[in-house]
Design goal:
The structure holds 2 protein chains of 2 kinds. Chain A is α/β, with parallel strands linked by helices. Chain A has 2 domains: about 30 residues; about 210 residues, Rossmann fold (3-Layer(aba) Sandwich), CATH 3.40.50. Chain A is built from 12 helices and 6 strands. Chain A has a 6-stranded parallel sheet, with helices on both faces. Chain B is an all-alpha fold. Chain B contains 7 helices and no strands. The relative contact order of chain B is 0.06. The chains are: A alpha/beta, B mainly alpha. Chains A and B meet through α2, α4, α5, β3 and α7 of A and α2, α4, α5, α6 and α7 of B.
Chain lengths: ~280, ~210
């Protein structure tokens, strides 16, 4: 009588011998390899990303844009490229930018880091206090968004440097939600996207575009395009945006790694099924 | 005032009054109610901050207890937790979150650690996919095909081979996914309305501790 190991198929024995740790190693090497040496496969632009770009491009000069950040270190791993691309595009355009943070206290240091990664030549053309202002974190999740929309000055009496809002020149005309032409909601926290829709779109009637991670992207589909006119989808959306603003960056470098992961996953699914049916045959 | 009044009746009255004000603010827009609701919203931001402070106090208290009792396999983590907490707190207070030292610590400790945790998920997904998507029952096949469609839509290598993957993935996103998500949303929203009415009527007392 054959024992258990003899019943196993050749493929199964090969996979078992190599083990999951080798699969993990291959994935790791693949991701690092493609990040260091991207092949540069073409990335078609999706409609959701194109809409995002168009919304920002269509804003008249001196329009006020609120950048509502809900960034976490976990989500930033996926969103870094898109965050930098969005900030860069916003700074390139002649707009009044108000950066603020809600929902998670982890956001302000990430915004500060991302700001340092915006190309110097772009940032140097904009003047703090005249063209943009950066505010910290306000606790209270959805209620903080309501408070900001009701009275920005009350919610944020000072900016991150401690300068009173009343003495920041560009803030003189920005007091309530109606002063914002559009809110750019950047986040990887699902409840905050729903809250942003309830507060900014439904209550204050302000247009909102969103930049989210891939899992939130799917959850936002019911709102697209009627309620949320534009959405950026994780690394892929970031890569598409980098192409649109003609500044290749982190996301574009990662798209080849996504291709690598897709090939490995499809391979793993194929091997898994071959094993399954071979085993089934052995049993019968 | 009796203990029961303080613990249950008073919070219940506060909840009902606040909920009513918010309700009237949204549906009537009467200036007096709007002003009052805005004031309450500002208060709620302050209350939120106190909530966070309470969280920090609870965290310190729990870890200090572990340290005091020298809980096996735990106390050294508590030392690490408290040391990190106070270090970040001190530097954050001294230099603010935008300060150079705080940024340096945050970017080189917190961000890589949390990103690594997220990155590990990728490995689990692939190994999970290899183990779970075996055999072609209707459920597994539907799940696997939608997974493949989305994956191939996102992977430039696939769309470079055949641009049709974009359309297939897009259709999955915009039709079945959107329909299912909308169903879930409507269900959740109806549940939220029921919960809101129950809270308004004082029937929902779960937040008071049962």
């Amino acid at each position: 009588m054959k024992n258990e190991s003899q019943k196993k198929t050749i493929t199964e024995r090969l996979v078992k011998a190599s083990g999951a740790k080798w699969l993990c190693l291959i994935i790791g090497i693949m991701v690092v390899f493609f990040y260091v040496r991207p092949i540069g496969l073409p990335v078609p632009i999706s409609q959701t990303t194109k809409s995002f770009y168009d919304v920002i491009e269509a804003l008249p000069e001196n329009s006020v844009v609120g950048i509502q950040n809900v960034l976490t270190p976990t989500g930033y791993a996926e969103q870094k490229g898109q965050v930098i691309a969005i900030y860069t595009h916003l700074f390139v355009r002649p707009l009044k930018l108000v950066f603020f943070n809600v929902w998670v206290a982890t956001s302000p240091p990430i915004v500060a880091t991302a700001m340092e990664l915006v190309p110097r030549e772009v940032l140097q053309k904009r003047q703090y206090g005249k063209d943009y202002a950066i505010y910290g974190y306000v606790a209270g999740e959805e209620r903080s968004m309501v408070a900001i929309g009701n009275n920005f000055w009350d919610a944020y009496p000072v900016d991150t440097a401690g300068t009173p809002t009343s003495s920041i020149p560009m803030m003189s005309g920005i007091r309530t939600a109606k002063d914002f032409a559009v809110i750019v909601h950047i986040c990887a926290m699902f409840p905050s996207t729903d809250a942003a829709i309830r507060v900014w779109i439904q209550t204050f009637k302000v247009r909102v575009v969103m930049a989210v991670d891939s899992s939130n992207y799917m959850a936002l589909m019911p709102y697209y395009p009627a309620i949320v006119p534009a959405i950026l989808n994780g690394v892929r959306g970031g890569a598409e945006y980098e192409i649109l603003i003609k500044r290749p960056g982190d996301s574009l470098a990662f798209t080849d790694a996504i291709s690598g992961m897709a090939v490995i996953l499809i391979g793993a699914l194929f091997v898994g099924n071959v094993l399954f049916y071979q085993r089934k045959q052995v049993k019968t | 005032m009796s203990n029961e009044t303080v613990r249950r009746t008073l919070p219940l009255v506060v909840t009902i009054v606040v909920a009513l004000i918010m309700f009237l603010d949204y549906y009537t827009g009467a200036p007096v109610v709007v002003d009052f609701s805005r004031t309450i919203t500002s208060w709620s931001v302050v209350i939120g901050l106190f909530g966070q402070l309470l969280g920090v106090v609870a965290l310190i208290s729990i870890n200090a207890r572990h340290l005091q009792k020298k809980t096996p396999k735990r106390w050294y983590f508590s030392i690490m937790m408290l040391a990190t907490l106070f270090l970040f707190l001190a530097i954050g207070l001294a230099t603010t979150a935008s300060g150079a030292i705080y940024q340096l610590m945050y970017n080189n400790i917190v961000v890589p650690l949390e990103s690594a945790m997220m990155g590990v998920l990728g490995f689990y997904f692939i190994i999970g996919g290899y183990k779970a998507f075996r055999g072609f029952s209707l459920d597994v096949a539907a799940f696997m095909l939608s997974l493949l469609a989305i994956l191939l839509m996102l992977a430039p290598i696939a769309t470079a081979i055949w641009p049709g993957f974009t359309d297939i993935g897009g259709w999955i996103q915009l039709v079945p996914n959107r329909a299912a998500q909308r169903g879930v949303l409507i269900g959740v929203s109806l549940g939220a309305i029921v919960l809101a009415f129950n809270t308004l009527l004082g029937r929902e007392r779960g937040y008071l501790g049962g």
